[in-house]
Amino acid sequence: MTDRAGGRRRPADSGVTLVELLVTIAITGILMTSLSAGIVAVVRTMGPTAKRLAATQDEQNLVTWLPVDVSSTPVSSLRTAADAASGCAGGAPGVNVLLASWSETVNGTTTSYETSYRAVTEGAGMRLKRFTCKGNGALGTASAMNVSNVLAPLPAGWTAGTAPIVVTVTGVVVQVTLTQDDGRINS
């Protein structure tokens, strides 16, 4: 092969120059440093991120279910007394935070519904759980209980009616106040 400008001959496999090799090594080093820093950042945040996602899912349950339960219930049937029974046959564990009771009649058949948000002891702490049941007939006789987690574990020593969660019913307004671990309050 002949180089037209100088008339010199270049071998077919001439390789790379030292400058080209050094530039390639420098660029590869910069890329690998950036990539490894990104991987380290992701690995460090996986544990806390998983905990935050689990807590967010529980709070999403509260935001999803509570408005439906409250809007289905006549205000006179909302109870926030800590000693209120769950309304389900056989009862439910824990302390009442909010109890909603209502009935619906469809095609002549009356179905009663009971939903109780209760603080239940789990290990050294507590968790807010939603107990739901339905049945035919009068309120308080519903069966087929379903239990769902509503909030992530609450701090040790928490009791219903105190922070981090307080439910108040004033007229037709139901307010839920949730105090997070960092002191922020959501209503």
Q: Could you walk me through the main structural features you see in this protein, from its secondary elements to its overall organization?
A:
Strand 7 (173-179) and strand 8 form a beta hairpin. The chain has 187 residues and is an alpha+beta fold. Helix content is 29%, strand content 33%. The strands form two sheets. Strands 1-2-3-4-5 form a five-stranded antiparallel β-sheet, with helices on one face. A three-stranded antiparallel β-sheet has the order 6-7-8, with no helix packed on it. The model has no long low-confidence stretch (mean pLDDT 75). It has one helix at residues 18-72, and strands at residues 78-79, 95-106, 109-122, 125-136, 143-149, 165-170, 173-179, 185-186.
Output the keywords.
5-stranded antiparallel beta sheet, 8 strands, alpha+beta, elongated, 187 residues
- Portion in helices: 25-40%
* H/I helix tally: 1
Q: Structural class of the helices, strands and pairings? A: alpha+beta
Task: Give the neighbour order of strands across the main sheet.
Answer: 1-2-3-4-5
Total number of β-strand segments? 8
Rg from alpha-carbon coordinates = 31 Å
Instruction: State which percent range the strand residues make up.
Output: 25-35%
